[in-house]
């Protein structure tokens, strides 16, 4: 939503979580929802250009890189990771997306028991474009704040200009 409360963009999750961890977690999102058909262009906000993704999309760096190419400065990943996947992958994936895209990553996270068969990991956090966790909630409900410093983001991008070093002419040719 925009500052005056108008719809600024709508994003539909493009990757559905169909995973089975025997004895730990089973997710079959494709049994009750359809995947989104497109990546949405970054949205201008007072904090910076916001790239939209959701939960399981985090496992696919192609989205974060496409959003970066389109001008994103902040990537969002509202999520409900399970405890087994969250404890193993949550922070490392968020930090990887921040480092490879040189964006801030803001990840709201459901926490606690969703229903009798599912508990969400939580641990909402914010990562800066260098990959440092600059704010994090631990277990349980909470709120964390982080400064989004676009001057710092642009300095990181100037010092290590990976976007200009990418070789799309080689990717997909193996």
UniProtKB/TrEMBL annotation:
It comes from the Eukaryota. Pfam families: CN_hydrolase (PF00795). Residues 1-150 form the CN hydrolase domain. This is NIT1 amidase.
